[in-house]
Design goal:
The complex is a heterodimer of chains A (435) and B (190). By secondary structure, chain A is mainly β. Helix content of chain A is 12%, strand content 42%. Chain B has a single domain (2-189), classed as 2-Layer Sandwich (60s Ribosomal Protein L30, Chain: A), CATH 3.30.1330.60. The chains are: A mainly beta (435), B alpha+beta (190).
C-alpha cells in the first residue's frame, strides 16, 4: 500500500496501480556512505510480450532501452551485454523456475526478468528481480500506466528497485531549479529531472539569481535586483506566492543557504561595505552574526546536520573554501590548490563539491569536510561551475560553457559519466537539485 | 545578446561624446585623460594613455569658476564625468594609481557641483562565480566611494551597487574584454 501511495503521488497525471505479487525482504546492503563502492552486475534479458509470447518486438526493445539507460544512470548497476546471456527471455518465461546457475556462471549478481502486456491504452509491466547467487527473489511486482507514460512507469520500477537495494529512491522523481536567460533576463525556472514541466517562478525583468529550494520544497531563496536597491535576498513561498525581502537590514546580499530545519537561512549580507555571514529567520530578522571578518565572506552551504557551514572567503588574499562550526566558529580552510576556489555545495552524504580555477578553467572538485582528499571530477576545456549535489548525494549537477553557452550537466560519482540535462535556448546556470 | 546591445549602445555614446569632445575640447575638464586631442580620452579603457602632468594642468586651467557659470556646459561635463570609469586587476579591489588620479578629478568635480549625487556601480569580469563577484563588485564600488570620501566628498551623496559579472561592457571571452569589464562606473543623479 505504501508503494501505491508513493507512486500515485508522483504520477499525478498517470493512473497507476501496483500490485505486490511477492516481496522477499532480502536486502543487499551497499555502503551508502561511499557512493560508488558497490556495482552490481545485472542481466536484463529482452522484455517478454506476455500476450504474443515472444520477445522479438520493437515495442519491448524500446522499453528495455529505457530501462537499461535508467539502470546505468543509477550508478550502482553494470548492465551486462545481452550477448553473454546463455538463456533467452523465452527460456525464462517458459517455466516458473529460473535456472539461476545459468546466470551466476556468466558473472551476474542480479537478474531482472520483465514481461509486458497491453490492454487498450494501458500497459502492464511485470518484473522480478532475482539474486542469482542466493537464488532469492529480491523484488517482484507489476505496474500499470497509460501507454504514453510507459517511460515513467519504467523510471518508477527502477526507483523501486533502487529503494530495495540501497534504501533510497533514485533521482527520477527529483526536480531542478535553475537560472536561465533564454527570454533575455535572468529568471528562475523549475523543471522535472526528466526535463518536463519547466515553469518560470520569477518574472521580474531584471537580474534574478541563485535559487535555493527549501528542505520541504515549498519555498525558494534567491537574489534579485527587482526592487532597484541592488542585489537583495528574497524568500518566496511557492504555495502562498508571498515574497519577503530577507536582507532588509543590510545594504545588499550575495545569496543564502537553507538550514536543515527549513526555518532559518545562512545569508551573506553586506553591511557598511563588508560581507559577512549571518543567521536569519524567514522574516529577515537577524538571529546571529556568524562571521566577523573585514574581507569577503560569501557562498554558504550548510552541512546535513546543520552544525557546520562551508563558505568562500578571501582571508588569504584570494577566494578559498572554508568550513566553520556554526556554534563554535573557528573557520578552517579546506581548499588546497589554486588561486580561486568557490561555490561549495555540501551533500547529504557529507561530501563537499566546489569550483576550482585550474589551468585557466574552472573545474568541479569533490572533497570531504576536512579537506583531506580532493578529486577533480570534470575535465576537458570550458568552465564547470555552480556545483550542486543530487538529494541522494550520488550525482553532481553543474553548468558548463564547454559547448558555447552555459548548459546544465550532471555526473554520477561512480561511473563519472556526464549527461546533459534540460534542453533550452540561452544559458542555464546555478542549478539547485531537490526532491 | 543583451550585453552585446549594451556594448553597442556604449560605443555609440562614446562615439557621440567623442565628436562633442572634438568640438569643445577646451572644456573637457574632468573628462580629459591627459591626451591632447580629447578624442581617445573619452574611451575609458585606454586610461593608461594618460599622463599625470597633463591632468594636473587641466585641473588648474579649467576648474576655477566652472561650477559658478557655464551652466550650459554642465550636462556635457556630467556626461564626461560619467564616461570616465576606473578599472581593476583580476580578483582585486584595490585602487591603481590611475584609478586614484581619476577619482581625485572626480572629487574636485563633485565638490564644485554639489547638486549632483553619485551612484557608483561595481562590475567584474565573467570569470569566477557570480556570488563572489557580487561581493567583489561591491568592494570595488566601495573602494571608489571610500577614496572619494577621503578626499572630502560627503558620504551621504554617494551610493554604491554591485552588478557582479551581470553587466559586462564587452561580452567576449578575451583578456581584453575582461579588463574592460573589471570596472567601477559613475552615475550622476541630480
Amino acid at each position: 500500500m505504501k508503494f501505491k501511495k508513493i507512486f500515485l503521488s508522483f504520477f499525478i497525471l498517470v493512473t497507476l496501480e501496483i500490485f505486490v505479487i511477492q516481496t522477499v525482504f532480502a536486502r543487499i546492503s551497499i555502503e551508502i556512505g561511499r557512493p560508488g563502492s558497490v556495482i552490481f552486475n545485472i542481466a536484463v534479458p529482452d522484455f517478454f510480450d506476455l500476450q504474443r509470447k515472444g520477445s522479438a518486438y520493437e515495442f519491448g526493445t524500446n522499453l528495455r532501452n529505457i530501462m537499461v539507460n535508467d539502470l546505468e544512470m543509477s550508478e550502482i548497476f553494470n548492465v551486462m551485454d545481452k550477448r553473454v546471456y546463455i538463456e533467452k527471455a523465452e527460456d525464462l518465461w517458459r517455466s516458473q523456475q529460473v535456472n539461476v546457475k545459468s546466470w551466476s556462471t556468466i558473472g551476474a549478481d542480479l537478474l531482472l526478468k520483465v514481461g509486458y502486456s497491453l490492454q487498450g491504452d494501458k500497459i502492464e509491466l511485470v518484473f522480478t528481480l532475482i539474486d542469482v547467487n542466493r537464488g532469492d527473489i529480491v523484488l517482484s511486482k507489476s505496474g500499470t500506466s497509460h501507454i504514453n507514460d510507459s517511460k515513467y512507469l519504467i523510471h518508477s520500477i527502477v526507483d523501486e528497485i533502487l529503494k530495495v537495494l540501497t534504501g533510497e529512491y533514485g533521482v527520477f522523481k527529483t526536480k531542478i531549479a535553475f537560472v536561465s536567460n533564454h527570454k533575455g533576463n535572468k529568471e528562475i525556472f523549475i523543471g522535472d529531472f526528466t526535463g518536463n514541466n519547466i515553469t518560470g517562478i520569477t518574472n521580474y525583468g531584471t537580474i534574478t539569481l541563485l535559487p535555493k529550494i527549501s528542505p520541504d520544497g515549498n519555498g525558494v531563496l534567491f537574489v534579485s535586483y527587482k526592487d532597484q536597491n541592488g542585489p537583495q535576498l528574497y524568500y518566496k513561498d511557492l504555495k502562498a506566492k508571498t515574497i519577503v525581502c530577507l536582507s532588509k537590514g543590510a545594504d545588499a546580499s550575495s545569496g543564502g543557504a537553507w538550514m536543515p530545519d527549513g526555518k532559518r537561512v545562512v545569508a551573506s549580507l553586506t553591511l557598511k561595505g563588508n560581507q559577512d555571514l549571518y543567521l536569519l529567520d524567514l522574516q529577515g530578522n537577524l538571529l546571529r552574526r556568524l562571521t566577523d571578518y573585514p574581507g569577503i565572506e560569501v557562498g554558504p552551504s550548510v552541512s546535513p546536520d546543520g552544525s557546520k557551514v562551508a563558505f568562500v572567503a578571501d582571508r588569504d588574499g584570494s577566494p578559498q573554501v572554508y568550513v566553520m562550526d556554526i556554534g563554535a566558529g573557528g573557520a578552517r580552510k579546506i581548499s588546497v590548490e589554486g588561486r580561486y576556489n568557490s561555490s561549495p555545495s555540501w551533500s547529504s552524504k557529507n561530501q563537499i563539491a566546489y569550483a576550482s580555477l585550474l589551468d585557466g578553467n574552472f573545474d568541479i572538485v569533490v572533497t570531504d569536510p576536512e579537506g583531506i582528499r580532493h578529486v577533480k571530477i570534470t575535465d576537458g576545456g570550458g568552465n564547470h561551475e555552480d556545483p550542486c549535489w543530487a538529494p541522494n548525494g550520488r550525482y553532481i549537477i553543474y553548468s558548463s560553457n564547454k559547448e558555447g553557452r552555459y548548459k546544465l550537466y550532471f555526473k554520477g560519482m561512480s561511473t563519472q559519466k556526464e549527461r546533459r540535462l534540460i534542453n533550452m535556448e540561452g544559458d542555464q546556470l546555478m542549478p539547485f537539485w531537490f526532491k | 545578446m543583451k550585453s552585446f546591445r549594451l556594448g553597442v549602445l556604449i560605443l555609440l555614446i562614446l562615439a557621440i561624446s567623442t565628436s562633442f569632445g572634438c568640438a569643445k575640447k577646451k572644456f573637457t575638464v574632468g573628462s580629459g585623460e591627459g591626451t591632447p586631442s580629447g578624442e581617445s580620452s573619452l574611451v575609458g579603457p585606454k586610461e593608461e594613455a594618460g599622463d599625470m602632468r597633463g591632468r594636473d594642468v587641466r585641473f588648474r586651467d579649467l576648474e576655477p569658476g566652472r561650477a559658478g557659470k557655464g551652466g550650459a556646459d554642465l550636462p556635457f561635463e556630467a556626461k564626461a564625468f560619467e564616461e570616465e570609469m576606473i578599472f581593476f586587476e583580476f580578483d582585486r579591489y584595490d585602487l591603481s594609481p590611475q584609478a586614484r588620479a581619476i577619482l581625485e578629478k572626480k572629487a574636485i568635480w563633485l565638490k564644485n557641483n554639489p547638486k549632483y549625487r553619485l551612484r557608483i556601480e561595481g562590475h567584474c569580469d565573467e570569470r569566477g562565480t557570480n556570488e563572489y563577484n557580487l561581493a567583489l563588485g561591491d568592494r570595488r564600488a566601495n573602494a571608489a566611494k571610500n577614496y572619494l570620501v577621503s578626499l572630502g566628498v560627503e558620504p551621504e551623496r554617494i551610493s554604491t551597487i554591485s552588478y557582479g559579472e551581470e553587466r559586462p561592457l564587452d561580452p567576449r571571452n578575451t583578456e581584453d574584454a575582461y579588463s574592460k569589464n573589471r570596472r567601477a562606473e559613475f552615475k550622476l543623479i541630480k
